[in-house]
Amino acid sequence: MTTKATTGPSDAVPAGTAAAKGGRVISTAELATHNTRESAWVAIRGKVYDVTNFISRHPGGEDVMLLGIGRDSTQVFEMYHQLKVAGSLPKYYVGELADNELPVFPPSSLFFQTVKKRVYDHLAAQGLDPKIAPGMWMRYVVIYATLAVSWYLQFFVFTAGAVQWMLALVLGFFCAQIGLNPMHDASHFTISHNPWAWKVIGATHDFFNGASYLVWEYQHMQGHHSYTNIEGADPDIVTSEHDVRRIKQSQTWFSRFLNQHLWVPFLYGVLGIKTRIQDVQILYFVKKNDNIRVNPITPWHHAVFWLGKAFFAFYRFYVPIAVAGISVPRTLALFLVADLVSSYWLALTFQANHVVEETEWPKPNDKNEMDVDWATMQLSTTQDYAHTSRFWTIATGALNYQAVHHLFPEISQYYYPNIAPVIMETCKEFNIPYLYKPTFTSALGSHIEYLRVLGFNEHPLDLAAKAAKAE
Q: What element of type H or E holds 354?
């Protein structure tokens, strides 16, 4: 299936690899040029398909297809479809993919086939539609309503005193809830079966949080979920030579990382500001997030991006200052308080799932091939916590069931507590570890300890390298 590894689209095409299979050899560079509605190719399991005429007929809408074309979308395809759907692909066949731009995984394991069937059978036996959860709509209403009321009271009723600052905290918390609930659910297509519902609700992230839903889809769905904790493929763990924190053993150690566990968590408070700036850079300048390429942007997403930024500035700054008469320094201070709350809540929630002592950081071989199947890797790179706490289940958008979410992102979070026992029992049957902490504080503590170990250059691989050097 694969013959050469690359870190980006390559023009090198090995000869003779597809002739016997009835197709021609297609490089990732050529595949990348077919990333528009007018010419849409996609690679699944090393085979390239021309889906141009299928885009308008895709049950999940055009938007989803336009994100995944021009690249190898094997993992996204297998995440969001029943495995039998692959049988409909041969009629679109064009040729064989010559090289691997990003890591590729072995075929779906018996474990994944088994757990997927069991989970869907479990829901069907209860008469539950995986994407229809009325209880989630009630949560969305509470989130949007509380955000609106706390914003209004903050600038038009309680315009001074402690109550105003408390309302800023509430506003920040519910801005984070938009990211963890409706926006996150929309990005995984779990809000009804209507693609327009996903697009419209996803866009509220742009308007109320000032951050791009489109950038999130590339980072989260195309990148993070497909290549969890894989350096050079998962945008969530991208670092640079001058990074202020060390989160991977592969990063070169510098003395500046000493005691990072004491001060790095405080930097998570700038996540919101950093994200809003990076959005522009990713979509309009570098046109990729880590090594996840951005396809041509549709008029809808151009409009949502810029109107969202404008509305965010309007309701967070213009209205308080020009309409409500709040001073500029006070408005900025209230904004900073709310944004700190949002950023900390989102950052700490995610860090406790993946950047911890217990999880693994898989590496592909020199052909960009993984030696473990995708589903098993999800369980080794993801940690759950506090399953018994209804508060953490609701307040984190059920990301305390992160392993469940990574295996079944297409199922509404509302059903994660329902299907988790099925998954955990199947893991036990297949002798696959399921990483779990009983409380959020213990999960977060694991993140802090992981930062400490890497900061002091005491990771087992660091110690082994130092021992080898000493010899």
A: helix 328-354
